[in-house]
């Protein structure tokens, strides 16, 4: 193994550690919805600080490689992808932290009908599956799996798209619980954003493994369909 | 449009098969870099274009080499005439033991030019093209050996340019130069490609990336991959190319 390989491996292990923290943050949010736990919320916030320091550390490590090793071909694509994956993971961590904050403000537990009608748990499960698959795709360099993640984002978008309608319906039947429903709506919006960032990561995996740019393709497809 | 083109070119040093059926074209007014490990045939291939390999005992060449549409192994081609069209710059600066002026004028004089004014104008223009004029204009009569290594190499480039070749071959032209002289030479290559087709052999991957429009990777006498430099350095198609440029060869 040459020196560059060793440096790249060091970055990879840092990304793995960061990823584990972000996974924990997202998982903690789902647990908080079902069974409120103030300690867990504090841990999420603490992890957020660690995630931020990983973000800076990984950026610096990549900068050093660019400056000292002049990476090319797959090494160059990998580093470019890592810079973006790093920043997307950091954003996911931020959203997870902000969900924990919203949960606290929602004064849990969340009312069961709201939990069921909003499909927020379903959305959480889809988000976590996406995160788990994209992580697997990254470490196995599996672009087939990465492409599946990109497609799966539609589920999140679909639920998110129905949120307003659901909320209106819920307000009518539960006028006393507007505060909690607004918070759940906020959580759904954050989960939708987590889905977008997870999709971005999947696109970066396709870029570095297959040297193909797939980002913005979905939007283009939609636009083309709309024009037809 | 290709300025230099070879078709199924084979070269043998005695029993050793050094070039194995190279077919490729180097575009006019573009810089093409040859990369590959030592002994891969890149310098041998470059030296085919001005028939320098003819001087080596036991060399056998098969196939076709066309420069600006002319087969350079046709019977009626004079090697001296060919070398007026194909200039060459070598790894180490090799000025003649003459003055700066005479080094650049040498090719013109050898080719029978006697017009003093014409020679002076051509020397000045060549030195300007080689980005050396400002540094030597006040000491043209001084020995070329008084120049620094980087200046000597630019003098050799000026000497090659003086006879107005259409193709300029460069065999590791900066390997003996310091970073500043290397940067100047690379800048020069960028400027020269407006008027010349440049083919450069380099062991410096970053240099190939910086100066060339096209890159060819050679391995064991074969042309493994040839394409736009930015493609070769971001997404090479052949695993051997990827291994070489990322330093994971062997």
Automatic annotation (TrEMBL), chain A:
The keyword Transport is assigned to this record: yes
Pfam families to which the protein is assigned, alphabetical: PhoU (PF01895)
GO biological process: intracellular phosphate ion homeostasis; negative regulation of phosphate metabolic process; phosphate ion transport
Signal peptide region: none
Domain of life the protein comes from: Bacteria
Domain spans labelled PhoU: 16-101, 120-205
Cellular component GO terms, alphabetical: cytoplasm
Subcellular compartments: Cytoplasm
Coiled-coil regions listed in the entry: none
Keywords of the record: Cytoplasm, Phosphate transport, Transport
Family assignment from sequence similarity: Belongs to the PhoU family.
Job of this protein: Plays a role in the regulation of phosphate uptake.
Description of how the protein assembles with itself and partners: Homodimer.
Protein name: Phosphate-specific transport system accessory protein PhoU
Organism, as annotated: Rufibacter immobilis
Lineage start: Bacteria, Pseudomonadati, Bacteroidota, Cytophagia, Cytophagales
TrEMBL record, chain B:
ABC transporter domain residues: 4-245
Record GO cellular component, one term: plasma membrane
Chief place of localization: membrane
Location in the cell: Cell inner membrane
Alphabetical list of InterPro entries matching this protein: AAA+_ATPase, ABC_transporter-like_ATP-bd, ABC_transporter-like_CS, P-loop_NTPase, PstB-like
MF term (GO), any: ATP hydrolysis activity
GO process annotations (BP): phosphate ion transmembrane transport
UniProtKB keywords: ATP-binding, Cell membrane, Membrane, Nucleotide-binding, Phosphate transport, Translocase, Transport
Membrane-topology descriptor: Peripheral membrane protein
Functional summary from the UniProt entry: Part of the ABC transporter complex PstSACB involved in phosphate import. Responsible for energy coupling to the transport system.
Entry protein name: Phosphate ABC transporter ATP-binding protein
Native source species: Rufibacter immobilis
Taxonomic classification: Bacteria, Pseudomonadati, Bacteroidota, Cytophagia, Cytophagales
């Amino acid at each position: 193994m040459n020196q560059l390989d060793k440096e790249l491996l060091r970055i990879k292990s840092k990304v793995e550690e960061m990823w584990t923290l972000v996974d924990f943050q997202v998982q903690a949010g789902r647990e908080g919805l079902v069974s409120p736990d103030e300690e867990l919320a504090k841990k999420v916030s603490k992890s957020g600080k660690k995630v931020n320091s990983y973000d800076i550390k990984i950026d610096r490590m990549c900068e050093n490689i660019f400056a000292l090793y002049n990476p090319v071909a797959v090494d160059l694509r990998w580093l470019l992808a890592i810079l973006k994956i790093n920043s997307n993971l950091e954003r996911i961590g931020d959203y997870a932290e902000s969900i924990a904050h919203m949960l606290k403000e929602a004064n849990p537990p969340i009312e069961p009908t709201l939990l069921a009608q909003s499909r927020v748990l379903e959305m959480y499960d889809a988000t976590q599956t996406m995160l788990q698959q994209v992580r697997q795709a990254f470490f196995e360099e599996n672009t087939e799996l990465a492409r599946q993640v990109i497609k799966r984002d539609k589920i999140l978008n679909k639920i998110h798209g129905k949120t307003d309608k659901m909320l209106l319906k819920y307000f009518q039947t539960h006028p006393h619980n507007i505060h909690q429903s607004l918070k759940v709506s906020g959580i759904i919006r954050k989960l939708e954003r987590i889905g977008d960032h997870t999709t971005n990561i999947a696109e970066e995996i396709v870029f570095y493994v297959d040297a193909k740019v797939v980002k913005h393709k979905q939007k283009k497809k939609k636009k083309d369909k709309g024009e037809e | 449009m290709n300025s230099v083109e070879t078709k199924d070119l084979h070269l043998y040093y005695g029993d050793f098969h050094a070039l194995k059926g190279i077919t490729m074209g180097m575009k006019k007014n573009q810089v093409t870099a040859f990369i590959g490990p030592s002994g891969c045939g890149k310098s041998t291939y470059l030296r085919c274009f001005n028939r320098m390999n003819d001087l080596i005992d036991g060399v056998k060449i098969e196939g076709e080499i066309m420069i600006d549409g002319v087969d350079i192994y046709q019977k009626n081609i004079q090697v001296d005439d060919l070398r007026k069209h194909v200039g060459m710059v070598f790894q180490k600066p090799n000025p003649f033991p003459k003055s700066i002026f005479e080094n650049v004028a040498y090719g013109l004089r050898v080719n029978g030019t006697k017009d003093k004014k014409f020679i002076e104008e051509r020397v000045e223009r060549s030195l300007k093209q080689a980005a050396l004029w400002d540094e030597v204009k006040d000491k043209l009569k001084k020995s070329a050996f008084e120049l620094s290594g980087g200046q000597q190499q630019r003098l050799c480039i000026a000497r090659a340019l003086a006879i107005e070749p259409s193709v300029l071959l460069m065999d590791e032209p900066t390997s003996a130069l310091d970073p500043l002289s290397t940067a100047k030479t690379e800048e020069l290559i960028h400027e020269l490609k407006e008027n010349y087709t440049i083919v450069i052999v380099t062991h410096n991957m970053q240099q190939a990336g910086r100066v060339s429009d096209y890159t060819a990777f050679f391995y064991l006498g074969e042309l493994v991959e040839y394409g736009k430099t930015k493609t070769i350095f971001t997404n090479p198609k052949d695993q051997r190319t990827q291994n070489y440029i990322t330093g994971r060869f062997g």
